[in-house]
Amino acid sequence: MAKDEKVSAEAVVRDIRRQTRRKYSAEEKIRIVLEGLRGEDSIAELCRREGINPNMYYKWSKEFPEAGKARLTGDTKREASSSEVDTLRSENEQLKQAVAELLLARGSSLRLD
Q1: Coil, strand or helix: which one is 29?
Q2: Domain locations in the chain as residue ranges
């Protein structure tokens, strides 16, 4: 029974960690990588201060020049967030409705001579 309790406790802790994991914005990642490149503090100290694993820092620092190179060559695609997609769909529907109303209004004003 103790093993089951331990497994479920580990699962609970894992779920809590997953839900409370901090998500860093692109700006925060850039700031942290640039700070590491300046070399004023050690990477270990920087990572401790920022609350990230050094492996994460090195992953970001590897992606940093690749992303810059892709951006400068124009190879990037912007991905829309779900709220932007919802807004665009709503706007599209409103435009379709306006076009339909204009076509109906124009059609009713035409005379068959």
Answers
A1: helix
A2: 24-77, 79-113
